[in-house]
Amino acid sequence: MIVGLHDRWIVERQNEHYYKLAKKLDYRSRASFKLIQIDDRFQIFRLGDSVVDLGACPGGWLQVAKERVGETGKVVGVDLRYIYPLEGVETFVGDITEDKTMIELLTRFGGKADVVLSDMAPNIAGHYSTDHARSVNLCMYAVDVCDRILKKNGKMVCKVFMGDLMDSLTRELEKRFQSVKVYSPDASRETSSEVYVISKGFLANHRVKLKVLEEEDNEPDFKTKGPKI
Ligand SMILES: C[S@@+](CC[C@H](N)C(=O)[O-])C[C@H]1O[C@@H](n2cnc3c(N)ncnc32)[C@H](O)[C@@H]1O
What we know:
The chain is an alpha/beta fold. It contains 6 helices and 9 strands. The chain has one domain (5-222): 3-Layer(aba) Sandwich (Rossmann fold), CATH 3.40.50. The strands form 2 sheets. Strands 3-2-1-4-5-7-6 form a 7-stranded mixed sheet, sandwiched between helices. The structure holds S-adenosylmethionine.
């Protein structure tokens, strides 16, 4: 999408505003405000909830999630990159496309997560449809996480770059959730194609059970695949 000079100016002013606000309020990233705005509008978190945050580095969403689920809540963040420790939050380094990351999440949650968050973004190739397809692929891994660890009636918030696979993605989500909405928070105008899909009322009808197979060397071999669309 081509952005005019005036639009660019507005976006830069807005980014600067949230950047300064994040510094002032001690949030690790501007992204915190996107999640705040999403939660204020869609009521994602409840006190005591268990939350997993995929693609959580540097930790802006983790901070917001922890604030909102409170002392009794559980928040776990995973990212390809190391996340500096945050009080009351568990983190680990992992690639969500790898089986061992899924095993780690299962070990930490069982089927007991109330909310799955994903702000994952692919490495930007600069080619619109490639970036879009990679982003949708990451979302499908997040859906895969839901199928393994989300409680019935749980919620999911997932970032995606808009494009022609959006319909397929929302169809996959509609098979699994009672309600699916696409939303662009005010704090999210930095890229014109970024939106968040808010899914509520997980049906648990695509629940996938773990299969851990013993190999000859006794290393557990976990077979899983992101659902294909
Ligand atoms: C926009 S940042 C997340 C910002 C974060 N929500 C915050 O508030 O600080 C996107 C993150 O997704 C992570 N990511 C991308 N692909 C991933 C993957 N396959 N597994 C885990 N994390 C991934 C990147 O390393 C990056 O840190």
